[in-house]
Specification:
Blueprint: H1 4-8, E1 19-20, E2 64-69, H2 79-94, E3 98-103, H3 110-122, E4 128-130, H4 136-145, E5 151-154, E6 164-167, H5 171-185, E7 190-198, H6 200-216, E8 221-229, H7 239-251, E9 256-260, H8 265-274, E10 278-283, E11 299-305, H9 307-320, E12 337-339, H10 350-361
Parallel strand pairs: 2-3, 2-4, 4-5, 5-6, 7-8, 7-9, 9-10, 10-11
Antiparallel strand pairs: 1-8, 11-12
Helix pairs in contact: 2-9, 3-4, 5-6, 5-10, 7-8
């Protein structure tokens, strides 16, 4: 079995209301940080000795994969692109030749989602992978009708059917770490979060980010805003609104802004660049994404949600009939979430981030999944 840990080093991608700070401890200011930091970071662990044993040879040349994207689809420089990268790597590594890709519209109804999944299953695609929690009802309905087809769904674990595999993540853990990074890089001790849609899933990103920022500083000020309310998924595909909301946070004083807004994040980056602020990406290593290349100079890191690893591992597990070996949740312990260092903009902060990372893995820090 190829594990997420083994893949983390070789995958290209490696993969929402205003709040003032509180808590975070009263330790001395870290010598490598700005004046915003008030807590001494946990010591980074000694050099890791993670091994990456090669998995068994996998031949998936006969596999036909159905891939149903969330809104934004391939090219969103975020969530969907990460899923696409996992499939692309499976194609390159295992000889997968037939992949059916389809993308959801921002205002489509459940019938349209069911039709998309049903069409792929009817045409013999197996497995069928649904990218996003918005597919939950559709997957449950369609998987019941096609018991011999394997389905996977990203970001939902509410379906209890033998042919459905949930692929879920600890987004709050990775977001905690970039919250710490935001504080270390903030000159104004004022940071911001922009969520795409105000749902429990995106609240996990906010919760982790806010907690991480407060862990590093007892005086940080945080702006938290969402582009759209629950039920209006256009918040994941509205760069113009992302720009406006991020610009508003920056005008209030935030000089580092983290987004969890899908394709709307492009607007967040543009707002940061226009205002000489800094930004943090999400899901993929957005510093290396061509579709946001014009703003890469302001992207200091990205919270890596390794959808690419989860999709790739799922394909391996289907091909080798080892679905039971997949992790129940892709968290820091299995490198299912993390942070990017491309561009070298947070190299000086990595020891602090690694210290906090290890404390989360060891259970010494529990990261909240809902905003406090």
């Amino acid at each position: 079995m190829v594990t997420a840990t083994a893949l983390a080093g070789v995958l290209a991608l490696a993969g929402c209301a205003k709040d003032s700070s509180g808590g975070g401890g009263g330790g001395k200011t870290d010598s490598a940080s700005g004046s915003c930091v008030t807590s001494t970071a946990p010591a980074a662990p000694a050099g890791s000795t993670s091994s990456s044993a090669a998995g068994a040879k996998v031949d998936a040349s006969a596999m036909r994969i159905g891939l149903s994207y969330d809104i934004g689809g391939r090219g969103d420089a975020s969530f969907n692109d990460a899923a696409a990268a996992g499939v692309d790597k499976a194609k390159a590594d295992f000889g997968v030749r037939d992949v059916s890709e389809s993308t959801a519209g921002p205002s489509e109804d459940e019938a349209a989602k069911e039709q998309r999944l049903s069409q792929q299953a009817t045409n013999g695609y197996n497995p069928v992978i649904a990218i996003g929690f918005a597919y939950a009802d559709a997957v449950k309905a369609v998987a019941t009708k096609f018991p011999n087809t394997k389905f996977a769904i990203i970001d939902d674990d509410s379906i209890s059917l033998p042919n459905v595999t949930p692929l879920v993540f600890s987004e709050e853990q990775g977001s905690f770490l970039v919250g710490v990074a935001a504080v270390y890089k903030s000159k104004k001790c004022h940071v911001g979060f922009v969520g795409g849609v105000n749902t429990p899933l995106i609240q996990k990103f906010q919760a982790g980010f806010d907690q991480g920022a407060k862990a590093a500083s007892s005086k940080v000020v945080i702006e938290d805003q969402y582009l759209t309310p629950a039920g209006d998924f256009s918040g994941f595909q509205d760069p113009a609104k992302g720009n406006v909301v991020a610009a508003a946070e920056i005008s209030k004083g935030a000089d580092v802004v983290y987004h969890a807004a899908g394709a709307s994040g492009k607007g967040v980056f543009e707002a940061a660049k226009s205002a000489n602020a800094l930004a943090i990406g999400v899901d993929s290593d957005q510093y290396n994404q061509k579709t946001v290349a014009n703003s890469k100079d302001v992207i200091i890191t990205s919270m890596l949600k390794r959808v690419d690893v989860a999709v790739y591992d799922y394909i391996v597990a289907v091909a080798t009939n080892t679905l039971g070996s997949l992790p129940k949740r892709f968290d820091l312990k299995v490198d299912g979430v993390g942070y990017a260092t491309s561009g070298g903009k947070i190299d000086d902060v990595v020891p602090a981030l690694q210290g906090y990372r290890q404390q989360i893995i060891d259970g010494k820090i529990t990261v909240a999944t809902t905003p406090r």
